[in-house]
Amino acid sequence: MNLKPQEAAADTSGVRIIVHHDIWITDPMLPFRTSVLSALSATASAVVLAGCVDVIEAPLAPPPEGLTVSLRDTAFAGEMTWIAVERPVLDTGAIRYESSDPTVIAVDADGRVFPFKSGTATITVRSPNLTGTITPQIRSRPDSFKVAFRFRWSPSADERAAFDRAAMRWQRVLRQAAPTTTAFPAGGCLAGTVAEEIRHQGVIIWLDRFDDGSVAPGVTGTAGPCVVDELGRTRVGVMTLRRSFSTAVTTMTALEKAAWENQFVHQLGQTLGLTGLTAFGVPRPELDQSVAGQPRWTGAQALGAYRAAGGTGAGVPITADLNFWTSGDPGTAGDVMLPSVTAASRITRVSVGALADRGYSVDLSRAEPMPILLAPAFALRTVRYQP
To answer: How many CA atoms lie within 13 A of 273 on its CB side?
Structure first.
Protein backbone atom coordinates (compact mmCIF):
# COMPACT_ATOMS: atom_id res chain seq x y z
CA MET A 1 0.00 0.00 0.00
CA ASN A 2 1.42 3.42 -0.91
CA LEU A 3 1.39 5.45 2.30
CA LYS A 4 1.90 9.17 2.63
CA PRO A 5 2.10 9.82 6.37
CA GLN A 6 1.37 13.21 7.85
CA GLU A 7 2.82 14.40 11.13
CA ALA A 8 0.76 14.80 14.29
CA ALA A 9 2.06 16.59 17.37
CA ALA A 10 3.45 13.88 19.63
CA ASP A 11 6.75 13.31 21.42
CA THR A 12 6.66 10.65 24.14
CA SER A 13 9.82 9.60 26.00
CA GLY A 14 11.99 10.66 23.09
CA VAL A 15 10.02 8.60 20.58
CA ARG A 16 8.62 10.60 17.65
CA ILE A 17 5.12 9.47 16.60
CA ILE A 18 3.75 10.04 13.07
CA VAL A 19 0.10 9.29 12.52
CA HIS A 20 -1.12 8.48 9.01
CA HIS A 21 -4.40 10.18 8.13
CA ASP A 22 -5.35 8.61 4.81
CA ILE A 23 -4.78 4.90 4.38
CA TRP A 24 -8.43 3.98 3.81
CA ILE A 25 -9.08 2.77 0.28
CA THR A 26 -12.71 2.24 1.16
CA ASP A 27 -14.97 2.27 4.15
CA PRO A 28 -16.98 -0.94 3.73
CA MET A 29 -18.94 -0.89 6.96
CA LEU A 30 -19.11 1.36 9.98
CA PRO A 31 -18.87 -1.50 12.54
CA PHE A 32 -15.86 -2.89 10.73
CA ARG A 33 -14.16 0.50 10.73
CA THR A 34 -14.85 1.08 14.42
CA SER A 35 -13.31 -2.22 15.50
CA VAL A 36 -10.19 -1.65 13.42
CA LEU A 37 -9.71 1.87 14.78
CA SER A 38 -9.97 0.60 18.35
CA ALA A 39 -7.43 -2.13 17.71
CA LEU A 40 -4.98 0.26 16.05
CA SER A 41 -5.31 2.82 18.84
CA ALA A 42 -4.55 0.20 21.46
CA THR A 43 -1.57 -1.05 19.45
CA ALA A 44 -0.21 2.48 19.03
CA SER A 45 -0.28 3.12 22.75
CA ALA A 46 1.52 -0.14 23.50
CA VAL A 47 4.24 0.52 20.94
CA VAL A 48 4.86 4.05 22.20
CA LEU A 49 5.20 2.92 25.77
CA ALA A 50 7.68 0.26 24.73
CA GLY A 51 9.71 2.84 22.81
CA CYS A 52 10.54 0.34 20.07
CA VAL A 53 9.48 2.19 16.87
CA ASP A 54 9.39 5.77 15.69
CA VAL A 55 6.47 5.61 13.17
CA ILE A 56 2.91 4.60 13.90
CA GLU A 57 0.21 4.52 11.21
CA ALA A 58 -3.48 4.66 12.03
CA PRO A 59 -6.54 5.69 10.01
CA LEU A 60 -8.00 8.88 11.40
CA ALA A 61 -9.98 10.27 8.42
CA PRO A 62 -12.04 7.61 6.63
CA PRO A 63 -14.19 8.73 3.66
CA PRO A 64 -17.85 9.59 4.16
CA GLU A 65 -20.53 6.93 4.24
CA GLY A 66 -22.93 6.37 1.33
CA LEU A 67 -23.55 4.91 -2.10
CA THR A 68 -22.18 6.66 -5.17
CA VAL A 69 -25.02 7.01 -7.68
CA SER A 70 -24.82 8.08 -11.33
CA LEU A 71 -26.63 7.49 -14.62
CA ARG A 72 -25.17 5.32 -17.34
CA ASP A 73 -25.52 8.15 -19.85
CA THR A 74 -27.27 11.49 -20.38
CA ALA A 75 -30.95 11.44 -19.49
CA PHE A 76 -33.24 12.55 -22.30
CA ALA A 77 -37.02 12.72 -22.12
CA GLY A 78 -38.56 9.59 -23.62
CA GLU A 79 -35.37 7.50 -23.59
CA MET A 80 -34.65 4.77 -21.08
CA THR A 81 -31.34 4.69 -19.23
CA TRP A 82 -29.87 2.97 -16.13
CA ILE A 83 -28.64 3.83 -12.69
CA ALA A 84 -25.03 2.95 -11.87
CA VAL A 85 -24.41 2.26 -8.18
CA GLU A 86 -20.97 2.11 -6.59
CA ARG A 87 -20.99 0.41 -3.23
CA PRO A 88 -18.49 -1.12 -0.77
CA VAL A 89 -18.05 -4.85 -1.26
CA LEU A 90 -19.04 -5.56 2.33
CA ASP A 91 -22.30 -3.68 1.90
CA THR A 92 -24.44 -6.56 0.68
CA GLY A 93 -28.15 -7.04 0.22
CA ALA A 94 -30.80 -5.81 -2.17
CA ILE A 95 -30.80 -2.28 -3.55
CA ARG A 96 -34.04 -0.30 -3.67
CA TYR A 97 -34.87 2.72 -5.82
CA GLU A 98 -37.33 5.55 -5.36
CA SER A 99 -38.19 8.65 -7.42
CA SER A 100 -39.37 11.85 -5.78
CA ASP A 101 -41.61 12.56 -8.79
CA PRO A 102 -42.61 9.53 -10.91
CA THR A 103 -44.42 11.83 -13.38
CA VAL A 104 -40.99 13.17 -14.40
CA ILE A 105 -38.77 10.13 -13.80
CA ALA A 106 -39.89 6.60 -13.03
CA VAL A 107 -37.37 4.01 -11.81
CA ASP A 108 -38.09 0.29 -11.56
CA ALA A 109 -36.77 -2.43 -9.25
CA ASP A 110 -33.90 -3.18 -11.66
CA GLY A 111 -32.61 0.39 -11.66
CA ARG A 112 -33.94 1.24 -15.11
CA VAL A 113 -34.79 4.92 -15.42
CA PHE A 114 -37.68 6.14 -17.57
CA PRO A 115 -37.66 9.95 -17.99
CA PHE A 116 -41.12 11.04 -19.19
CA LYS A 117 -40.57 14.77 -19.65
CA SER A 118 -38.11 17.59 -19.12
CA GLY A 119 -37.48 18.58 -15.52
CA THR A 120 -35.79 17.25 -12.40
CA ALA A 121 -36.54 14.67 -9.74
CA THR A 122 -34.39 13.04 -7.10
CA ILE A 123 -33.70 9.31 -7.28
CA THR A 124 -32.86 7.76 -3.91
CA VAL A 125 -30.97 4.47 -3.80
CA ARG A 126 -30.94 2.41 -0.62
CA SER A 127 -29.07 -0.70 0.48
CA PRO A 128 -29.60 -2.27 3.91
CA ASN A 129 -26.82 -0.06 5.33
CA LEU A 130 -26.23 2.89 3.01
CA THR A 131 -28.05 5.51 0.96
CA GLY A 132 -27.21 7.60 -2.09
CA THR A 133 -29.07 10.09 -4.28
CA ILE A 134 -28.90 11.70 -7.69
CA THR A 135 -30.98 14.55 -9.14
CA PRO A 136 -30.60 14.41 -12.93
CA GLN A 137 -31.68 17.20 -15.24
CA ILE A 138 -33.95 15.67 -17.90
CA ARG A 139 -33.53 17.39 -21.24
CA SER A 140 -35.45 17.24 -24.52
CA ARG A 141 -33.66 16.07 -27.64
CA PRO A 142 -34.55 18.00 -30.83
CA ASP A 143 -33.93 14.94 -33.01
CA SER A 144 -35.91 12.56 -30.82
CA PHE A 145 -37.82 9.68 -32.42
CA LYS A 146 -41.28 9.28 -30.92
CA VAL A 147 -43.42 6.13 -30.86
CA ALA A 148 -47.06 7.20 -30.54
CA PHE A 149 -49.69 4.59 -29.70
CA ARG A 150 -53.33 4.63 -30.79
CA PHE A 151 -55.30 2.11 -28.74
CA ARG A 152 -58.49 0.49 -29.99
CA TRP A 153 -59.49 -0.04 -26.35
CA SER A 154 -59.04 1.87 -23.08
CA PRO A 155 -55.82 0.47 -21.58
CA SER A 156 -55.24 0.21 -17.84
CA ALA A 157 -52.31 2.01 -16.21
CA ASP A 158 -50.37 -1.28 -16.05
CA GLU A 159 -50.95 -1.94 -19.75
CA ARG A 160 -49.98 1.58 -20.73
CA ALA A 161 -46.81 1.39 -18.64
CA ALA A 162 -45.67 -1.80 -20.42
CA PHE A 163 -46.12 -0.24 -23.86
CA ASP A 164 -44.57 3.09 -22.88
CA ARG A 165 -41.48 1.39 -21.47
CA ALA A 166 -41.11 -0.73 -24.59
CA ALA A 167 -41.33 2.42 -26.71
CA MET A 168 -38.74 4.27 -24.62
CA ARG A 169 -36.25 1.50 -25.23
CA TRP A 170 -36.47 1.92 -29.03
CA GLN A 171 -36.59 5.71 -28.69
CA ARG A 172 -33.25 5.42 -26.91
CA VAL A 173 -31.49 4.33 -30.12
CA LEU A 174 -33.55 5.97 -32.90
CA ARG A 175 -33.29 9.55 -34.20
CA GLN A 176 -35.30 11.72 -36.58
CA ALA A 177 -34.33 15.26 -37.49
CA ALA A 178 -37.80 16.66 -38.22
CA PRO A 179 -41.49 15.69 -38.45
CA THR A 180 -42.87 14.18 -41.66
CA THR A 181 -46.36 14.09 -43.14
CA THR A 182 -47.91 10.75 -44.06
CA ALA A 183 -51.09 10.17 -46.05
CA PHE A 184 -52.99 7.51 -44.13
CA PRO A 185 -55.72 5.75 -46.17
CA ALA A 186 -59.16 4.83 -44.88
CA GLY A 187 -59.08 1.33 -43.44
CA GLY A 188 -55.30 1.40 -43.37
CA CYS A 189 -53.75 -1.08 -40.90
CA LEU A 190 -57.09 -1.90 -39.25
CA ALA A 191 -60.68 -1.94 -40.37
CA GLY A 192 -62.63 1.15 -39.39
CA THR A 193 -59.76 3.64 -39.36
CA VAL A 194 -60.40 6.88 -41.24
CA ALA A 195 -58.29 8.61 -43.85
CA GLU A 196 -56.08 11.40 -42.50
CA GLU A 197 -52.87 13.33 -42.93
CA ILE A 198 -50.52 12.37 -40.12
CA ARG A 199 -47.66 14.69 -39.18
CA HIS A 200 -45.33 13.08 -36.71
CA GLN A 201 -41.65 12.80 -35.76
CA GLY A 202 -41.33 9.04 -35.52
CA VAL A 203 -43.90 6.30 -35.99
CA ILE A 204 -47.61 5.85 -35.24
CA ILE A 205 -48.63 2.40 -33.92
CA TRP A 206 -52.24 1.18 -33.96
CA LEU A 207 -52.93 -1.30 -31.17
CA ASP A 208 -55.74 -3.86 -31.10
CA ARG A 209 -56.55 -7.15 -29.34
CA PHE A 210 -57.70 -10.57 -30.52
CA ASP A 211 -59.48 -13.43 -28.76
CA ASP A 212 -57.08 -16.02 -27.38
CA GLY A 213 -58.94 -18.86 -29.06
CA SER A 214 -58.39 -17.38 -32.51
CA VAL A 215 -54.64 -18.16 -32.59
CA ALA A 216 -52.29 -20.98 -31.68
CA PRO A 217 -51.37 -21.24 -27.96
CA GLY A 218 -47.80 -20.01 -28.47
CA VAL A 219 -48.79 -16.83 -30.33
CA THR A 220 -48.77 -13.77 -28.08
CA GLY A 221 -49.27 -11.15 -30.76
CA THR A 222 -48.65 -9.99 -34.31
CA ALA A 223 -47.05 -6.84 -35.68
CA GLY A 224 -45.76 -5.20 -38.82
CA PRO A 225 -45.62 -2.00 -40.89
CA CYS A 226 -48.61 -0.83 -42.90
CA VAL A 227 -47.48 2.57 -44.27
CA VAL A 228 -43.85 3.17 -45.23
CA ASP A 229 -42.00 6.09 -46.80
CA GLU A 230 -39.97 6.12 -50.00
CA LEU A 231 -37.00 4.53 -48.20
CA GLY A 232 -39.08 1.73 -46.73
CA ARG A 233 -39.07 3.17 -43.21
CA THR A 234 -42.26 2.61 -41.25
CA ARG A 235 -44.48 5.62 -40.68
CA VAL A 236 -47.57 3.76 -39.47
CA GLY A 237 -47.59 0.25 -38.04
CA VAL A 238 -49.96 -2.12 -36.28
CA MET A 239 -49.64 -4.41 -33.24
CA THR A 240 -52.21 -6.88 -31.93
CA LEU A 241 -52.04 -8.94 -28.75
CA ARG A 242 -54.03 -11.46 -26.76
CA ARG A 243 -57.08 -10.06 -25.03
CA SER A 244 -56.17 -12.02 -21.88
CA PHE A 245 -53.13 -9.77 -21.32
CA SER A 246 -55.42 -6.95 -20.20
CA THR A 247 -56.71 -8.95 -17.24
CA ALA A 248 -53.54 -10.93 -16.47
CA VAL A 249 -51.21 -7.91 -16.21
CA THR A 250 -52.64 -6.84 -12.86
CA THR A 251 -51.49 -10.06 -11.15
CA MET A 252 -48.25 -10.73 -13.01
CA THR A 253 -44.95 -11.17 -11.21
CA ALA A 254 -42.11 -8.77 -11.97
CA LEU A 255 -40.47 -11.44 -14.14
CA GLU A 256 -43.67 -12.01 -16.12
CA LYS A 257 -44.10 -8.28 -16.68
CA ALA A 258 -40.50 -8.05 -17.90
CA ALA A 259 -41.10 -10.88 -20.38
CA TRP A 260 -44.26 -9.20 -21.70
CA GLU A 261 -42.49 -5.86 -21.96
CA ASN A 262 -39.82 -7.54 -24.07
CA GLN A 263 -42.57 -9.11 -26.18
CA PHE A 264 -43.80 -5.59 -26.94
CA VAL A 265 -40.23 -4.45 -27.67
CA HIS A 266 -40.02 -7.38 -30.10
CA GLN A 267 -43.31 -6.44 -31.76
CA LEU A 268 -42.24 -2.82 -32.07
CA GLY A 269 -39.09 -4.03 -33.81
CA GLN A 270 -41.32 -5.86 -36.26
CA THR A 271 -43.39 -2.76 -36.95
CA LEU A 272 -40.18 -0.83 -37.62
CA GLY A 273 -39.26 -3.34 -40.31
CA LEU A 274 -37.34 -6.07 -38.52
CA THR A 275 -39.86 -8.62 -39.76
CA GLY A 276 -39.42 -10.29 -43.08
CA LEU A 277 -36.59 -7.77 -43.61
CA THR A 278 -38.49 -6.81 -46.73
CA ALA A 279 -40.60 -3.83 -47.76
CA PHE A 280 -44.11 -5.19 -48.37
CA GLY A 281 -42.77 -8.40 -49.83
CA VAL A 282 -40.07 -6.76 -51.93
CA PRO A 283 -36.70 -8.06 -50.70
CA ARG A 284 -34.23 -5.49 -49.51
CA PRO A 285 -30.86 -5.46 -51.30
CA GLU A 286 -29.20 -6.42 -48.00
CA LEU A 287 -31.20 -9.68 -47.87
CA ASP A 288 -29.05 -12.50 -49.26
CA GLN A 289 -31.05 -15.60 -50.22
CA SER A 290 -28.42 -17.17 -52.45
CA VAL A 291 -28.23 -20.27 -50.23
CA ALA A 292 -31.56 -22.11 -50.14
CA GLY A 293 -33.12 -22.10 -46.68
CA GLN A 294 -30.30 -20.02 -45.18
CA PRO A 295 -31.09 -16.34 -45.69
CA ARG A 296 -28.67 -13.76 -44.35
CA TRP A 297 -28.70 -10.03 -43.73
CA THR A 298 -25.60 -8.41 -45.22
CA GLY A 299 -26.17 -4.75 -44.32
CA ALA A 300 -22.89 -3.18 -43.25
CA GLN A 301 -24.06 -1.83 -39.88
CA ALA A 302 -25.75 -5.02 -38.66
CA LEU A 303 -22.98 -7.23 -40.03
CA GLY A 304 -20.28 -5.19 -38.28
CA ALA A 305 -22.12 -5.44 -34.96
CA TYR A 306 -22.73 -9.16 -35.48
CA ARG A 307 -19.05 -9.89 -36.08
CA ALA A 308 -18.00 -7.70 -33.14
CA ALA A 309 -20.25 -9.84 -30.92
CA GLY A 310 -18.59 -13.07 -32.05
CA GLY A 311 -20.60 -13.96 -35.15
CA THR A 312 -18.93 -15.43 -38.23
CA GLY A 313 -19.87 -15.70 -41.88
CA ALA A 314 -20.87 -13.32 -44.63
CA GLY A 315 -24.14 -12.18 -43.08
CA VAL A 316 -26.37 -12.23 -40.00
CA PRO A 317 -28.31 -15.53 -40.18
CA ILE A 318 -32.10 -15.22 -40.47
CA THR A 319 -34.79 -17.85 -40.00
CA ALA A 320 -36.18 -19.44 -43.17
CA ASP A 321 -39.46 -17.51 -42.83
CA LEU A 322 -37.41 -14.25 -42.76
CA ASN A 323 -39.02 -13.14 -39.50
CA PHE A 324 -36.24 -13.46 -36.89
CA TRP A 325 -32.53 -13.70 -36.28
CA THR A 326 -31.47 -17.33 -35.99
CA SER A 327 -31.16 -18.72 -32.46
CA GLY A 328 -27.96 -20.29 -31.13
CA ASP A 329 -25.54 -17.90 -32.82
CA PRO A 330 -23.10 -15.97 -30.58
CA GLY A 331 -23.42 -12.90 -32.76
CA THR A 332 -27.10 -12.47 -31.92
CA ALA A 333 -27.16 -13.92 -28.40
CA GLY A 334 -29.75 -12.26 -26.18
CA ASP A 335 -31.21 -10.11 -28.96
CA VAL A 336 -34.87 -9.23 -28.59
CA MET A 337 -35.53 -10.10 -32.26
CA LEU A 338 -34.82 -13.82 -31.78
CA PRO A 339 -37.77 -16.25 -32.10
CA SER A 340 -37.93 -16.77 -28.33
CA VAL A 341 -38.25 -13.65 -26.18
CA THR A 342 -37.44 -13.78 -22.45
CA ALA A 343 -37.25 -11.32 -19.57
CA ALA A 344 -33.51 -10.95 -20.28
CA SER A 345 -33.83 -10.12 -24.00
CA ARG A 346 -32.33 -6.80 -25.07
CA ILE A 347 -31.94 -4.50 -28.07
CA THR A 348 -28.43 -5.30 -29.26
CA ARG A 349 -26.29 -3.44 -31.77
CA VAL A 350 -27.22 -6.03 -34.40
CA SER A 351 -30.88 -4.99 -34.48
CA VAL A 352 -30.00 -1.30 -34.19
CA GLY A 353 -27.54 -1.75 -37.05
CA ALA A 354 -30.20 -3.48 -39.18
CA LEU A 355 -32.46 -0.45 -38.74
CA ALA A 356 -29.56 1.77 -39.83
CA ASP A 357 -29.15 -0.44 -42.91
CA ARG A 358 -32.86 0.13 -43.62
CA GLY A 359 -32.38 3.91 -43.65
CA TYR A 360 -33.21 4.91 -40.08
CA SER A 361 -30.98 7.34 -38.19
CA VAL A 362 -29.64 5.54 -35.12
CA ASP A 363 -27.17 5.85 -32.27
CA LEU A 364 -25.39 2.50 -32.03
CA SER A 365 -23.65 3.53 -28.82
CA ARG A 366 -27.00 3.52 -26.99
CA ALA A 367 -27.85 -0.12 -27.75
CA GLU A 368 -28.67 -2.04 -24.59
CA PRO A 369 -25.61 -3.57 -22.88
CA MET A 370 -25.26 -6.86 -21.09
CA PRO A 371 -25.43 -6.60 -17.27
CA ILE A 372 -22.03 -5.50 -15.97
CA LEU A 373 -20.26 -6.34 -12.71
CA LEU A 374 -16.86 -4.79 -12.17
CA ALA A 375 -14.52 -5.31 -9.24
CA PRO A 376 -11.45 -3.11 -9.87
CA ALA A 377 -8.17 -4.22 -8.32
CA PHE A 378 -6.98 -2.31 -5.23
CA ALA A 379 -10.40 -0.69 -4.80
CA LEU A 380 -12.71 -2.67 -2.57
CA ARG A 381 -15.83 -1.36 -4.26
CA THR A 382 -18.02 -2.78 -7.01
CA VAL A 383 -19.84 -0.93 -9.74
CA ARG A 384 -23.06 -2.56 -10.76
CA TYR A 385 -24.97 -1.42 -13.79
CA GLN A 386 -28.63 -2.29 -13.54
CA PRO A 387 -30.23 -4.42 -14.78
So the answer is: 28
